[in-house]
Amino acid sequence: QVQLVESGGGLVQAGGSLRLSCAASGRTSSIIAMGWFRQAPGKERESVAVIGWRGSGTSYADSVKGRFTISRDNAKNAGYLQMSSLKPEDTAVYYCAARRSGAGSYDLWGQGTQVTVSS
């Protein structure tokens, strides 16, 4: 089994930066992609950014392109989301997720970390 633990959330002023981390443990060899998702109060969960676990492919939501950067460190079994030029509308609970080989979607989720951007 694989476990994901996020860290790095917090309160920041608009225009500021935060770096989220996701530590993966367990059978990490089964991971083929990692992603960051977020859910704001009263809204559906949305994909923010995803990255191939072995390759270099990345994809971003239009709302964060040019501001957020997803990366991973296979040696540390960790993923990261560098968030810059934060806006109040980025306020949400951010979740790290992993997609395992054979899974049709992201099937493993962390507990989430709160990001609050004040205006």
Keyphrases for this structure?
single chain; mainly beta; 11 strands; 0% helix
Structure, explained:
It is a single chain. The protein has 119 residues and is an all-beta fold. Helices cover 0% and strands 56% of the residues. The protein contains no helices and 11 strands. The strands form 2 sheets. Strands 2, 4, 5, 6, 9, 10 and 11 form a 7-stranded mixed beta sheet that branches. It has a 4-stranded antiparallel beta sheet with strand order 1-3-8-7, with no helix packed on it. A hairpin with a 4-residue loop joins strand 7 (68-73) and strand 8. It is globular and about 40 Å long. The model has no long low-confidence stretch (mean pLDDT 95).
Please outline the helices and strands:
Elements: E1 2-7, E2 10-13, E3 18-26, E4 31-39, E5 46-52, E6 58-60, E7 68-73, E8 78-83, E9 92-100, E10 108-109, E11 113-118
Parallel strand pairs: 2-11
Antiparallel strand pairs: 1-3, 3-8, 4-5, 4-9, 5-6, 7-8, 9-10, 9-11
Task: Write a brief structural summary.
With 119 residues, this protein is mainly β.
**Secondary-structure element order, as H and E?**
EEEEEEEEEEE
Question: Could you tell me the radius of gyration in angstroms?
Answer: 14 Å
Low-confidence stretches: none
Mean pLDDT: 95
- Overall SS class: mainly beta
Helix count, per DSSP? 0
What distance separates the N and C termini? 40 Å
The tally of beta strands, per DSSP, is: 11
Strand content: over 45%
Give a short account of the largest sheet: 7 strands, mixed
Estimated helix fraction: under 10%
What is the 3D shape?
globular
